[in-house]
Amino acid sequence: MSSTLFNLQLDHIAHLQRAYAPMLSEHGFDSLAIYSGHASVHFADDHTPPFQTYGHFMHWVGLADVQHSWLIIQPEKRPQLYLYAPADFWHLPTHLPEEPWVAAFDVHFCSDKITPPLIGNAAIIGDTDQLAASHQQTMQAERQPEQLVNSLNELRLFKTPYEIACIREANRLAIAGHQAAQAAFIGTSGELDIQLAYLGASRQRESNVPYQNIIGLNQHAGVLHYQHYDLNAPKRHYSLLVDAGRRFRGYCADITRAYAGPDAPVAFGELVTAMHDLKDELVKGVAPGVSFIALHEQMHQQLAEILVAHGLFKGTADQAVAEGVTRLFCPHGLGHSLGLQVHDVAGLRHSDGTPAPAPEQHPALRLTRTLRPGMVVTIEPGLYFIAMLLDPLRNTSLPVNWRLVDQLSSCGGIRIEDNVAVTESGFDNLTP
Asked: How remote is the C-alpha of 247 from its chain's centroid?
């Protein structure tokens, strides 16, 4: 690991120390205990699903798989890390890397699950409902104080240079996986084969991905959160959609690419190119002071122009937007905040913590903020042929080219997604 990244991480921790002190004071707390969380077992079993450390704990420590541990933050004091590290011959014991950031903490290795030492008027955040009753009864502190959590979420919305460097590296690693997935598709592989190629090239286990990879061939590309992998290759390869990410030091990449297959109609390949161009245009619109809602509406206007230009809608672009046609071809939002969580915090709240819900006409939009430097967002326009959404239009007089829609329906859909940092002067596309 480069010394530059280590130095950025130390600056990041110092930034958190400076930022937490006035927040705790403002909300009337002397200290804060952050629980890492822990995995819950499957029903009537002793096995657990994949686990992700609580985001505010990860914000300090940067490890995505720490369980049963505590971080105590007190203004003007060194952060206290109580790391659960039992002697265990069933599992590899927890350990910290030999990296400079560790020296910024007082580290206490705990062989048992502990109740954290609470100092003064304390707050506790994290999924403490999972703790044993004996632990919960001994913790006399305010749990999940809403205003404090809102303030901490707002802090996480704006990334430090260290965080942006981590997201950039996560993107670099994920791109290797996307390239391998494309190559496997060209080799006429099935969904499971493409998923395995992605994991191998991006150097990660399936349990480590920041979200379940979406690997959709043909019509499956039109299922927005497609959750399966067919074992066998289809007879025809019309299309592939890969929505897949990677973590680096806890931070997420979230990239999507769509490809036309050898059996796809020519029109579908042309639409893929058009959606790439649309993504690039929207990325150029990322800048401080820009409303993300306005950028989302721009996506719909330009998507309407694509529908008209490529013969899918025989009316005007303005008509396609006004009549809600574009919302049926693209039912999701333009993007979301990105960081320690794929759909990162504070995207649907104002800076003071009050709700900033999605507009009624765009209920799936996950980010409603005005862009400011330090934010990292995804830009992901889409165009899909989803029968349950489009079929009701067949009973209307709207001039949809149903012959072409039916011809393209076997291709499922298109989504192109990059990860973009908002800078002082514009944008920095972290997805090269």
From this structure: 10
Residue whose token pair is 């950039």: 168
β-bridge partners, 215: 242
User: How many angstroms separate the CA atoms of 217 and 24, rounded?
Assistant: 50
Token reading at 47: 């096995």
Q: Per residue of the chain (432 residues), give pLDDT as tens.
A: 688 999 999 999 999 999 999 999 999 999 999 999 998 888 888 888 888 999 999 999 999 999 999 999 999 999 999 999 998 888 888 889 999 999 999 999 999 999 999 999 999 999 888 776 656 555 779 999 999 999 999 999 999 999 999 999 999 999 999 999 999 999 888 999 999 999 999 999 999 999 999 999 999 999 999 999 999 999 999 999 999 999 999 999 999 999 999 999 999 999 999 999 999 999 999 999 999 999 999 999 999 999 999 999 999 999 999 999 999 999 999 999 999 999 999 999 999 999 999 999 999 999 999 999 999 999 999 999 999 999 999 999 999 999 999 999 999 999 999 999 999 999 999 998
Structurally, at CATH architecture level, domain 3-157 sits in 3-Layer(aba) Sandwich (3.40)
Sign of CA dihedral 8, 10, 12, 14: negative
Q: How many alpha carbons lie under 13 Å from residue 128 in its C-beta half-sphere? A: 25
| Residue recorded with tokens 């003071």 | 352
Give the Cα-Cα-Cα angle 130, 214, 60 (nearest 5 degrees): 45
Domain 161-429 has CATH 3.40.50.300: no
